[in-house]
Write a structure and sequence with these properties.
Blueprint lengths: L11 H4 L2 H8 L4 H19 L7 H9 L3 H6 L10 H8 L4 E7 L4 H12 L7 E5 L2 H10 L4 E2 L16 H7 L2 H10 L3 E5 L3 E3 L13 E5 L24 E8 L3 H16 L10 H12 L5 E3 L8 H4 L3 H6 L6 E3 L6 H10 L18
Helix pairs in contact: 10-11, 11-12
Length: 360
């Protein structure tokens, strides 16, 4: 993306001609001075790429906004006006984005996810939909340009568990975020933050399908299972996970998301009926399956938490095939962290230097 960089101010001595007179008096030529300056710039760029430093692209982006000082010092109010279009153009690589949505209590889980992505060298194309202003400011303070907030922001001061109204309020916004990205012409991979990459999932996106998705079942499938939408179970429902999706900005991809939004609008959360976004996603899939090109990703690479964490024999037999591990089939933020730690998948404590956010 083209950056409208501010021209840095020259030191006062240069403004008054003192530098030029001093240079000429010592016999240094203009070309020699330029060579020295070029070397200094090169050394600076190398320094900025050291582990734990902010990427050069992020620094230049902040500089273009005139925010270098403010970003380092604290929240920047102007991020309130940062648009999805601008954020997507900044983060996209090869017209593709990796996105998630997160509220402040889940920042440690976000960092764990980011470290696993950084190990696959894809962190620069991550765009985070912040679900509160504290998250928006904190991420952009640490990693400028990689977080955006779509108003109105829900109340996200607590770590909402699966099935709660707070959980529903956040997850029901997910398809709207995805449609915004698709309407801008980008392909998009969505992940929940309770996912860890153990390999690059993009290598499994074979063909040119509209939508790629994963099965949320814990029953084993054969390694050569069909990539079609699975047939409904005895209750007439399918069980496709809405936590890992890849979409292309095609008519079919957009139609699925619009139908998902419509299905969510039909349901209302209450203590007696505690809906969430996944049944609505499955309903939209079934209704639109014949109008788009769908692709079920291989179970061996994208296992549900119910399979990966409960079937050690299957994990051993499919070793080397896994791409992501989803920590679902577990309720509770701290319970998920403990399970990640038990399986050696919690990276945020000992490997924070690998995250673009640093230690959180």
């Amino acid at each position: 993306m083209a950056l409208n960089r501010r021209q840095p101010q020259l030191p006062a001595v240069a403004k008054h001609g003192l530098l030029s007179s001093r240079v000429s008096s010592q016999g240094i030529t203009r070309s020699g001075l330029l060579s020295v300056l070029a070397l200094l710039v090169l050394l600076l760029l190398v320094f900025l790429q050291l582990p734990g430093r902010r990427p050069v692209s992020a620094l230049l982006y902040s500089f273009s906004l005139g925010e270098v000082d403010e970003v380092d010092e604290g929240p920047v109010s102007r991020w309130k006006d940062y648009t999805v279009a601008r954020a997507a153009a900044f983060a996209a690589r090869n017209d593709t984005l990796i996105v998630t949505s997160v509220s402040e209590p889940f920042l440690p889980m976000l960092n764990n996810w980011l470290i696993s992505i950084a190990r696959q060298k894809r962190q620069d194309q991550v765009l985070i939909f912040a679900e509160d202003y504290a998250t928006l400011y904190e991420i952009n303070r640490r990693w400028p340009g990689h977080a955006v907030l779509v108003q109105p922001a829900p109340d996200s001061q607590t770590a909402h568990d699966y099935g709660s109204q707070g959980f529903y309020n956040i997850t029901s916004r997910r398809p709207r975020h995805l449609l915004d990205i698709l309407e801008l012409g980008y392909s998009v991979m969505y992940n929940d933050v309770d996912i860890v990459w153990v390999a690059d999932p993009f290598r499994y996106l074979e063909g040119d399908h509209d939508v790629y998705f994963t099965d949320d079942m814990f029953a084993e499938k054969p390694l050569n299972h069909s990539h079609n939408l699975p047939p409904p179970e005895t209750d007439g429902q399918t069980n496709i996970c809405s936590c890992m999706i890849f979409l292309r900005p095609t008519r079919g991809g957009k139609k699925l998301i619009r139908n998902w939004i419509e299905e969510i609008r039909k349901q209302h959360w209450s203590e007696n009926a505690k809906p969430h976004d996944q049944p609505a996603f499955n309903c939209a899939l079934r209704k639109t399956a014949k109008e788009m090109d769908l692709h079920l990703l291989p179970q061996a690479a994208f296992p549900s938490g119910g399979l990966y964490f409960r079937n050690a024999d299957w994990v051993k037999r499919t070793e080397g095939m896994h791409a992501i591990v989803h920590n679902n089939y577990m309720i509770g933020f701290q319970n998920k962290i403990k399970r990640f730690k038990d399986y050696g998948l919690w990276l945020a404590d000992d490997h924070a230097d690998e995250s673009p956010l640093g230690q959180i």
